[in-house]
Amino acid sequence: MPIDRIYRKHSDHLGCIKSLLQRDAAFRELCADYQEMCAWCEAHCQSDSLQKDECHAARKVLADLEREIETALQGCPTDMERRQ
Fold first, then answer.
1. 44 exposed, middle or buried (CB, 10 Å; 0-12, 13-18, 19+)?
2. Comparing C-alpha atoms, which of 16, 56, 7, 71 is closest to residue 35?
3. Dihedral pair phi/psi, residue 62, rounded to 5°
4. How far apart are CA 67 and CA 73, in angstroms?
5. 61: buried, middle or exposed (CB in 10 Å: 19+, 13-18, 0-12)?
6. Do 53 and 46 meet the contact criterion of CB atoms below 8 Å apart?
7. 28-82 confidence digits (pLDDT tens)
8. Are 34 and 40 in contact (CB under 8 A)?
């Protein structure tokens, strides 16, 4: 599963993300949903399309997914903290 968007957005938690992806099926599914929603938005919401309502709803779902990912990462030390 490509999770480049998640790595870029949370680059200070790479170790935690990798760990959660290995051991937590719910986190893997959350990341997959986030990636899928990002791809959908990129494909359908970049121009003035007829799908404005769908794009608005998709962006809301995307924001909710981002909050869920951030919540999952809250208890994790940052990569810098791990090195200290």
1. middle
2. 7
3. -60, -45
4. 10
5. middle
6. no
7. 999 999 999 999 888 888 776 667 888 999 999 999 999 999 999 988 877 666 6
8. no
Q: Token pair 């899928």 is at which residue?
A: 36
Give the integer Cα–Cα distance in Å for 41 and 67: 17
Whole-model pTM: value is 0.81
Please give the Cα distance from 77 to 16 (Å, whole number).
7
3-state secondary structure string across 4-50? HHHHHHCHHHHHHHHHHHHHCHHHHHHHHHHHHHHHHHHHHCCCCCC
Tokens of residue 27, six digits: 């986190």
Are the C-beta atoms of residues 52 and 60 closer than 8 Å to each other? Answer: no
